């Protein structure tokens, strides 16, 4: 019923947006000076913002086709093309291959594990673009669960750990892994499993960015909400089957539109102010500011459904049970031992103003990985940024990324 109600509402809004497009076309035909009147410009801007604010369910392109790199011959711009390295029903391992000149030294291979949190991996486009000049970047391009048929089975935290283990083996020895937000716990578990098995695919370094390793430290409103009811309450309230005609019809999911609503509800004023600012930018013909806001919301409003299993496992085992921090986390019925990690460097990164994953929650990984030598550890608390600022934007590129780059180089 939940998904069906959303689809009915979406059709109603689509009709309203069609009317707004007609209004825009009509205003475009107004002769001067009527079309230049302030009231008309404001009305046009409001209609444009409404038209552009539709929720979508399709992944946007990464749109990275070239990048500047340093080569023995100096700085060059090289072509970038996407390669599918591995694929499962739930994920594509995507490589951003660069046409480096002959004789250029190999770059560190990095597995960038994107969050399963209601958005597509393209939310990390800025992360990829920043890392690409210095690294051979691969990313977990998670599929929208509503497009995955039920015949492919469930996808929970165990399957997520499976994917990280398998993809690290595809990349091979001495690779590096960087996890953003939600997958920090399963990535740490995967590295611990590889270490205990003395698998040659153990990564040379592991960077955990703003992830809930120990949710009892600096709890946020997200932590409080995740503990507001028993797991069965979430199962019966926000989990819903995918309706026809989608390929995943019948699959239980936590819909991306629910996650988006939760994010917006955390700080509605910020989003209202952003859209009012967008209207003012359109009225003033400030294309730079308008494009910046639009680009953010184009990505923010592109939502992806989560498999119900990974959502409910995350609620039960990470947010409510805090099992990794308590030494109780298991994978395929097997206890996970972070203290077995000895050959992988550990970097943790947090944002001072993060209202999703509070400072201290990610740094807790150092207390679990007790056998990693001190000289192969580092923690970075980035001043002045919230959750998104530690992997996207000006502070990420100018202050956080240099720490990541240096750490990966030191552990290569």
From TrEMBL:
Going by the entry's taxonomy, the superkingdom of the source organism is recorded as Bacteria
Record domain PHB de-polymerase C-terminal: where? 210-411
- Its recorded name reads Polyhydroxyalkanoate depolymerase
> What organism is this sequence from?
Pseudonocardia charpentierae
Q: Which gene encodes it?
A: phaZ
